[in-house]
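Exam prep: given the inputs below (a chain plus zinc ion), describe the expected output before reading on.
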Amino acid sequence: MTDIDLNKARKAYNQQHASCKHRRDHSGNQIQFLLTFDEWLDIWQKSGKWAERGRGWNSYVMSRFNDLGNYEVGNVFIQKFGSNLRDSYKRAAESLRGRAMSEEAKRNLSISTTGKMQSKIWNDNIAAGLRNRPGTRCPSCGRVSNWCGWVARHIPTCKA
Ligand SMILES: [Zn+2]
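Solution:
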């Protein structure tokens, strides 16, 4: 077992706990963080990846299976941050499919498949898409939409 600085660990736990308060998963359910500190720490210790925990492309993060459900024992595992992102891209691409796609969305999908997944535009669209579920009210015109460009494109330019 790795030596873990418990103060640091407690802080990291609190941060992750807080960061998931207002999040919903891609099916629109509120994500709950149900792991106790001890459970959380245990999962990290068993993974052997505590020392490589973080935000970089090659560091490790706690993920939920299929990114669904709550953070709880049995539904989380430790994986590389990069592979976590790839899952998000895949899902966002799947949710875009089946809608009438804008030219921009098509372009962004083709960017993703040519390996430039970290492009700024693509990241912004994913973030907007995820932020938008189940709908964001435009502060200017008051309409609510979950259109994937709503937060990124409509709201900043709305003149109503
Ligand atoms: Zn508006």
